[in-house]
Amino acid sequence: MTMVKHGNFKTCAQSGFCARNRAYADLATSQASSWNPPYSLAPESIVFKNGQLEGTILKRVGVGGEMVRLPLVVTFLESGTARVTIDEEKRQKGDIELRHGSKARKERYNEAASWAIVGGLEVSVTAAVNKQTEKGATRVLYGPSNKFEAVIRHHPFSMEFNRDGQTQVMFGDRGLLNMEHWRPKIEKKEVEGEEKADDTKATEDEGTWWEESFGGNTDSKPRGPESVALDISFPGYEHVFGIPEHATSLSLKETRGGSGNYEEPYRLYNADVFEYEVNSPMTLYGSIPFMQAHRKDSTVGVFWLNGAETWIDVVKSRSSPNPLALGVEAAVTTQTHWISESGQLDVFVFLGPSPMDVSKAYGELTGYTQLPQHFAIAYHQCRWNYVSVEDVKDVDRKFDKHKIPYDIIWLDIEYTDGKKYFTWDPLTFGDPLSMQKQLTKNERKLVAIIDPHIKNEGGYRVVDELKSKDLAVKNKEGNIFEGWCWPGSSYWVDCFNPAAREWWKSLFRYDNWKGATSNMFIWNDMNEPSVFNGPETTMPKDNLHHGNWEHRDVHNIYGLTYHNATHHALIERKKGEVQRPFVLTRAFFAGSQRVGAMWTGDNEAKWEHLAQAFPMILANGIAGYPFAGADVGGFFGNPEKDLLTRWYQAGAFYPFFRGHAHIDTRRREPYLMGEPYTSIVTQALRLRYQLLPAWYTAFHEASVMGAPILRPHYYEFPGDERGFALDDQFFVGSTGLLAKPVVTEGADKVDIYIPDEENYYDYFDYTKYSGAGTKSIRAPLEKIPLLMRGGHIIPRRDRPRRSSGLMKWDPFTLVIVLNKAGNAEGTLYLDDGESFDYQAGAFIHRRFVFSQTSSSLVSENLAEAAGAKTAAYLKKMKKVRVEKIIIIGVGGEWVGRRVASIDEEGKQRKAKVAYHRSAGGKTAWAVIRDPGVAIGNSWKIELA
Fold it and tell me: How many degrees, rounded to 5, is the angle at CA 50 between CA 48 and CA 56?
């Protein structure tokens, strides 16, 4: 039974602007062909110049009423992305009146891009109006070689985006564009005794235009109704993905009507949801309004740049096939309806055609994921709370005693003095330096929690400065906003304010935060923001931020601003100390991927929550935020040992891998589980550490291309329709590793889907699986179903260590998994894992290629050019070598091979080759022992 209190959170019917726009959609649908949308693009207003089309959309209000002017800008970017922006002239000019004497801004919020977008806005110099235009429409050619086309229809206003002669994305095709224009509130006077006219059918329902109450709070709504909405259709696309964060399937379900569909739209409104339920469109902690649509060999996407509360309906229409066309199935079109409470309409369109094309274009705009410190992708040990310095030291020693690797131990809020951040409890954490000194001996780190609510207590330096410098969020009257969170009465730092961000940096300096060291990193929680006594457990929408923007405009962006401020604070906490930050966040928005990791929040120790984690992590990766994970073991409750064991096996494949638990749960460190569980969990942890070179390479690829780290099937095999909806198995980066961890109670086998005719091999015993289709794989408790696809080379480090930092100089193993043609290739990226020196060339990036034709393995340099720090780094790494090469799937010609000839930068030598015959379904394999080649050198190994 779930503990989420649904009554604390709005449904669409309780959210006035959502209900109004859904009703508008129902009206349009009911009238169907007779529906006449009131929005037209004035042809005489259209100007196309320098890759940008400008015009004015006129909204007709009532019969013979006013015409509301809505400025339109369509920008065609050099990347092939199109951006459509619609504003409102009266609000834009400030030609409106606010109610209640409000200090809020009059404009529609227009600063979301300053937080979410960091590049990719170069305007196309080749985009041009198509001379073969049609009456009532303007056509623009753009994109690579002008192969894309935007069709802007004048009346009613709508848009189509074409590629390859086909329409891929449509705006307004159902006539649901709706921008609620400003209008004054007219108080209606009723004359006593006069019967009220029944004109409800002729007028809009004004019941939620003005003040709106929920949960004991009344939203003053000084600007009145101002929602923006648009229908976006994907003709021929059955599957849509993304728009995290929701505990639902990867392929998004329909939200209106029909068995198995949701009744509510997907909601994006960052919220502290206590013990969330699975299989729900309910809002959670983060919001990324980015959606991909996929059909066979084609991917497109849209990014709805809006930080206000947003709801998204998803429905699918199926056209009837031509009865005369044999074998032709009905086409499915996914129709979405996007509704935001305020702000501009600002939408980016990506036409692909591949998933990688869409991810890369989106990443160019919002930034690629941070390349983290190496320790951050290892295992994190956390609970609420380790109770003292001695407790932390004891846990650290016991991991060593049981030979269990880990890199980071975490402190939740109880380490502070009375929940005052930047302090230490003098009784339990009076000597934080000794704790960190012990961790440092084995290259381990400490993470401490810092939240945005600041305790309102006299004599507390941080809150005194927050107030005196006027850096907190304000209420609707313009006074400091007071709410309730963990410390009790609290104020919230306003990181939209540049002065607040500068002040926030100062708090992290070692001379300001005594007891903090360079070995300590940060966890940002409760930054939705969570306000225990606020509406929907957050702050009122009519609160005011820097620049007098209302909280309603920026709610989903707030967590990013705070996360971003902490990220930069860690970079600058000591002059001359340059290391990459690590900051975990719970709340996020588009762009949060640039500044740290996220996790899926307060899950439960239940099998369904274990199963739900992978679709959520996959959705985050698709939406450009791949550094994601879920609390291993479940935050709430006490997992039985089988569940906890399976969760560690699954967690070994989370990009962010952390065990965490609630304060009321039993201790569950792996060494407490007893045998055989402790040993099985230790093996799962060691698998993660063994594959850290492959994981770090995948993180690097994400940091330069925007590619997901966990990749769903449609991403790797975009033409295989059977795999489009799969979300319980995935590929790890471009390594060829295909994983399907067990997430079902009592399961001792899994059915894993193989999408192609290539050979796949069990990672642990080299059992061979051939032929596309579903394969049954044994999975007793100690087994993780993990396959290697032929054609890949996987880098590993096989020596077990206590932490990843102690592996820095360890040798490598290369696992060559031959494809059917006898070939394979793979990459390795390596740097110091700590500093930003890689930006000056201090890294190793190699491609390994094995050729059946030449019976050779070659290491090639992928670095385009040497940087200022390249030579020094290569010199430092010159003794780090390859100690073993394993070749899997070898043929009979390998039986006689006993020697490998090595040529490393002009120096020749020999190495021994051992051959192992196939047996019992396991493939033949060979080992080149201690070839001794340096990991950073160019070399060639030939087999005689």
Answer: 30
The C-alpha atoms of residue 630 and residue 658 are separated, in whole angstroms, by: 7
Q: What's the 3-state SS for 645-699? A: HHHHHHHCCCCCEEECCCCCCCCCCHHHCCCCHHHHHHHHHHHHHHCHHHHHHHH
CA-CA distance, 264 to 13, in Å (whole number)?
9
Q: Among all residues, which ones are annotated catalytic? A: 525, 528, 602
Tell me the C-alpha distance between 350 and 360, whole Å. 10
- Alpha carbon distance 699, 165 (integer Å): 36
Phi/psi region, residue 575 (left: phi>0; alpha: psi -120 to 50; beta: rest), is: beta
The confidence score (pLDDT) of residue 65 equals: 78
Residue 799 backbone dihedrals phi, psi, to 5 degrees: -80, 120
Chain segment 93-121, per-residue pLDDT in tens: 999 999 999 999 999 999 999 999 999 99
pLDDT of residue 614: 98
Q: Which residues contact 32 (CB under 8 A, 6 or more apart)?
A: none
Within 10 Å of residue 910's Cβ, how many Cβ atoms? 12
Q: Which of 323, 338, 327, 153 is nearest to 234 (CA)?
A: 338
Apex CA 777: angle with CA 776 and CA 781, to 5°? 135
SS3 of 883, please? strand
The predicted model gives 46-65 an average pLDDT of 93
**Nearest-10 crossing angle of helices 677-690, 641-651:** 10
pLDDT grade, residue 199 (50/70/90)?
very low
> Token pair 């073969």 is at which residue?
132
Q: What's CA 859's distance to the chain center, in Å?
A: 33
Domains and CATH numbers, the chain: 6-183+214-320+329-366 (2.60.40.1760), 711-943 (2.60.40.1180)
- 722-762, pLDDT tens digit by residue? 999 999 999 999 999 999 999 999 999 999 999 999 999 99
Could you give the CA distance from residue 840 to residue 843 in angstroms, rounded to a whole number?
9
What single DSSP character describes residue 216?
A: T
**pLDDT for position 328:** 44
